[in-house]
Structures are given as structure tokens and as C-alpha cells.
């Protein structure tokens, strides 16, 4: 169970790293690679907490809109949560930034897709689906 938790954490960290690397609007001001890695891992911790606590609330409140848009509004929810993560990261001293709404939207999309793909490998064979 703990191994799966760590695997999912590192999958989220990798997804955030991909978004940080691919999108110019999501960035870190770290000078060297080890510092960037630590920043992304710190952001992944914040991302995990926000996804565990805030995302279910947002999804519950926006359920009618999510239903009407056939789930597409979840992309907006993910963008808002990514901006919230960037705000919290700045408050705790992590140099990880989301510049604008468009970057947050694309970043949320990238993080969702990369996390989905990586978690598909984590949940592969050897698991008990009860």
C-alpha cells in the first residue's frame, strides 16, 4: 500500500515536471537541476494535499456544471486547482509559478493526461481489484 502511495506521488511529481518543462507559462526560478527537482517534489506534496482536500469540494459544488458539460468542466476545475497550488507554493517559499489562466488550463490538461498514463502503469498486473 505504501509503495503504491509513493508510486502515485512520483507519478504526480513527474506530471508536474512535464508541465513545468513543456509550458513556458509554468516555471521555476531554480538555477540548477537538483534545486528544480526539490521544488517540483515540494509542489507535488502541495498538489497531493490540494487534490485530496480541495478537489472533492470543488467537484461537489460544481457537480451540476460538470454534468451539463459532460465532464469538460473538470478541465476548468483542474486549472483553478493548479493556480491554487502555485499560490500556496509561493506562500511557502517554493519558486514555482503559473503565469496566467491559459497556462493553468493547459498545465491542468497535461498533468491530467500524464498522471492518467503513469497511473495506468502503476495499477497494472499484480493488483487485486476487489
Provide a quick synopsis of the model:
The chain is mainly alpha-helical and 130 residues long.
How would you describe this structure to a colleague?
This protein has 130 residues and is mostly helical. 75% of the residues lie in helices and 5% in strands. The chain is built from 5 helices and 2 strands, in the order αβαααβα. It has helices spanning 2-22, 33-61, 63-68, 73-91, 101-122, and strands spanning 26-28, 96-98. A two-stranded antiparallel ribbon has the order 1-2. The model has no long low-confidence stretch (mean pLDDT 91).
Q: How would you describe this structure in keywords?
A:
75% helix; 2 strands; mainly alpha; single chain; 130 residues; two-stranded antiparallel ribbon
Q: From the helix content, strand content and strand pairing, which structural class follows?
A: mainly alpha
The dominant shape is: globular
Number of helices: 5
Average of the residue pLDDT scores:
91
Distance between the termini: 14 Å
What strand order characterises the main sheet?
Answer: 1-2
Measured as a percent range, the helix fraction is over 70%
Radius of gyration: 15 Å
Strand content: under 5%
Uncertain segments:
none
Order of helices and strands: HEHHHEH
Instruction: Summarize the main sheet.
Output: 2 strands, antiparallel
Number of strands: 2
Amino acid at each position: 500500500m505504501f509503495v503504491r502511495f509513493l508510486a502515485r506521488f512520483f507519478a504526480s511529481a513527474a506530471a508536474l515536471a512535464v508541465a513545468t518543462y513543456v509550458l513556458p507559462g509554468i516555471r521555476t526560478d531554480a538555477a540548477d537541476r537538483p534545486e528544480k527537482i526539490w521544488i517540483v517534489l515540494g509542489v507535488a506534496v502541495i498538489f497531493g494535499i490540494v487534490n485530496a482536500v480541495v478537489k472533492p469540494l470543488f467537484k461537489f459544488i460544481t457537480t451540476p456544471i460538470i454534468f451539463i458539460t459532460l465532464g469538460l468542466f473538470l478541465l476548468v476545475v483542474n486549472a483553478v486547482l493548479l493556480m491554487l497550488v502555485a499560490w500556496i507554493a509561493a506562500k511557502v517559499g517554493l519558486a514555482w509559478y503559473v503565469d496566467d489562466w491559459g497556462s493553468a488550463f493547459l498545465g491542468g490538461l497535461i498533468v491530467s493526461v500524464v498522471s492518467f498514463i503513469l497511473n495506468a502503469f502503476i495499477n497494472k498486473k499484480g493488483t487485486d481489484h476487489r
